[in-house]
Amino acid sequence: MTTLGNVYGPAVLTCTQAPMIGTVPFLLNPDSISLSRDVRVTNHGAKKQGNMGSQFVRSEPSKISLSDVTIRGMETKPLCDQLLNWMHPGSGGLGQMVGGMLTRKAHDGTDYTNRLPTLTFLWGPPLMGFCYSVMLTSATIKYVRFNADAVPVRAKVTLQMLEQPNPLGTLPTNPTSGGLPGRGTRTLTEGENLQAVGLDSYGSPHAWREVARANDIEDPLRVKPGQVLYLPHPEDFAPEEAR
């Protein structure tokens, strides 16, 4: 019997972002794939619109879990190391080891030293299978077989990933669709803080409070480069008396 894995190849994680370029194919496909997504709602602004119900604010990125995938062969250890390197900004992984030719800055000047890379998870046919842009947030690796020289030749891996928003998904909502325009995301760069985001996105540094509230940030001084922030629409802002 022919399976999806035979026709379209194994599940694979790929990074094309220098200096962390690499590919990790899974010889045996996942036993299961779990996806979950949460939504945020708010009551702010409902009263002035004559609606006492909760308003949709945003959908959180999907959380994707791969259970019990298998890596096998003499490259087992390097491939597992690649997974771990993708969760260690600045390590470079396999790509940075090639003659030192790759730097930590992309051709457009973006510094990826403190930013987790975006990966592509692919398995199965187009449209009917799985294709996600993700950030790897957790990896549990269990080496289960070794050769006579104590080299790992098989590992069982469980991965947790966070879906990264498609750039087209951050475009303002068409007002005629019934949604509120202006919602989007922003990735913090080196040296940026919430006050700068508030000034640039809303024309006032004081808007940092609403950005912090929308992203559940308790300490505005602890934001980091590479962190993706949700930018709420001004109509989602809390009333002045509630701030």
Q: How large is the count of helical segments? A: 5
Global Rg: 21 Å
Q: Work out the number of β strands.
A: 11
Percent helix, as a range, is 10-25%
Strand order of the largest sheet: 2-1-7-8-9-6-3
- Contiguous uncertain segments of 5+ residues: 1-7, 92-110, 167-182
Shape annotation: elongated
How does this structure look, described?
The chain has 243 residues and is of the alpha+beta class. The protein contains 5 helices and 11 strands, in the order αββββββααββββααβ. A 7-stranded antiparallel sheet has the order 2-1-7-8-9-6-3. The chain has a two-stranded antiparallel ribbon with strand order 4-5. Strand 8 (130-146) and strand 9 (152-163) form a beta hairpin. Helix 4 packs across helix 5. The chain is elongated and about 65 Å long. It starts with a helix and ends in a 12-residue tail after the last strand. Mean pLDDT is 74; it is low at 1-7, 92-110 and 167-182.
Q: What's this, in brief?
A:
Helix content is 14%, strand content 30%. With 243 residues, the protein is of the alpha+beta class.
Task: Kindly list the characteristics that best describe this protein.
11 strands, alpha+beta, 243 residues, 14% helix, two-stranded antiparallel ribbon
